[in-house]
Amino acid sequence: MDIYLPIAGLSINCFFLVGLGGLVGLLSGLFGVGGGFLLTPLLIFAGIPPTVAAASDSNQIVAAAASGAYAYSRMGRVDYKMGFVLLVGGIAGGSLGVQIIKTLLASGGIDFLIHSVYVLMLGLIGSFMFVESLKAARRRAKSPGREEPAAESGSFLRHLASRLPWQVHFAKSRIRTSILFPLFLGTAIGILAAIMGVGGGFILVPAMIYILGMPTIVAVGTSLFQIALTCVNLTVQQAVRNQNVDLVLVILLFIGSTVGAQIGARLGKALHGEQVRILMAVIVLAVAAKMLADLVTAPANLISLVTGGGGH
Amino acid sequence: MKGFLLICLPFFLIWGSSWAASASPGKVEIQPPSFARNLFVEKANLLTFRGAAPDGARIVIKVAGPERDFKLNKSGKALGFLWIPVRHGVAGAVPAFFAVLSSEKEGSSFFAEEQKAAGIFPDFRQWPGQGKVTFLEKTDPEEAETLSREFLQGLIRLLQEKGLYRQDETAVRVARGQFEARLLLPAEAPLGEYRVSIYVLEGEKTSLLAHESFVVQAAGPAAWLARQSRENPAFYGIMAVLIALAAGALVGVIFQLGGRR
Hints:
Strand content of chain A: 5-15%
Distance between the termini of chain B: 91 Å
Order of helices and strands of chain B: HEEEEEEEEHEHEEEEEHH
Oligomer: heterodimer
Helix content of chain A: over 70%
Radius of gyration of chain A: 19 Å
Structural class of chain B: alpha+beta
Largest sheet of chain A: 2 strands, antiparallel
Structural class of chain A: mainly alpha
Radius of gyration of chain B: 26 Å
Largest sheet of chain B: 6 strands, mixed
Shape of chain B: flat
Shape of chain A: globular
Helix content of chain B: 25-40%
Largest interface: A-B, 57 and 60 residues
């Protein structure tokens, strides 16, 4: 059964879209991430214009992140002070990112930018996750049953943050750092979120744990709170400035992803943490490789359409 | 005589009504005369064209969709391995759908000048309509001409791949002074008015039989959403956020209830 996507201006099988949402929801439930960074490229592979895919994905993330943030808030695991600082940066960065999309849409360079940012970010994160998880799996094999200590890879940046002005104590996170640091982090995530159509949790959570030194559970809750509100801003901005949020697409993806996430969460219990992360890293690297192949392979037709959506 | 007329009357009525239904010369019937595109759609919609054809004539039908501006990129190699957009242009006033339907390969009998006048280029070697490319970068006139041709041919290829530019040499059937043609209009065909021109080929003479049109328009929720997105983007954005928040809350409540059981 085909459904007409009024903003993307094309028709597509609705079960395929629900299935795609379900697949990404399953992976997100399995790996504990938002899944936006997988959903946007998969939508692009399915023929949805990149800007519509990114904008609609932001809208879809609002639902999932708000639901999660509410659950963490009830458990008292959201650092609102840190969340608001990140949010100010996120809104500024998001608005800047939407403006970048608008400018590049006019000049025709947007599809290339979205592809390039994806290749770079997925390549970096996938490689980091793969190496880190492989090391953890080896250590686990040597001394089974031992919990992994938190990585100290961010100690240099944490030291730098402690020397910057405007030091603030974040009680819930049990850290003291310069307000400039989360502000900058939020801005960077906001820009990436607008361009990639992601919540940014896959960058924000490791950054909060490894660089800011926040407890993992508070980092996840605060990240969800910040992502939900950043994506609210992004959805409205994309709708107003670029008219590329496809509500029909969003609803179909959401139906699939909520069901998939529940199945994924149950499946995830059967696997070890590092096994899950290795699997996740392989998927992330496979998507990055496909997108890189698109950039380095000579196209069959040198002329391509700039697909901004909103054409009807 | 009266009895003879009474006997013959039903035959006259049947013959008369069938003649009227088969359309008079110059009049072409398009079924359906318009399409409403709602949320749930078929892969393609069948359109039928019927009309009277002079004896021994062949029929060529041109269907041109609404005109659109297409933003296009030309890819080129950068850094020795990366394919990136190197030229940017806008092809303006291009029919977003174009089809040529005929009963046989008309290329040999359809003369170049007449093709040009009719705007029919069955092999799409030339540009249908008034399409023109403007470039975002400064381009000298000689380069612009070459590049323009390249952009337009590339665009036609893209539209052919999507099934939006096509020719069908088996679509028209002519028999007993009538022609009937079928066109499968893909769901991706743009919204708007489609102009249909029907030509008659008799020997080496080509003449216009009729000009008709049909409309593809959005309907129901699809039309409403597209209109709100375009005309009330702030309202549309806030509505999208509220729907997402409500959906998120609903899922939260459902799984909270599920968890308690």
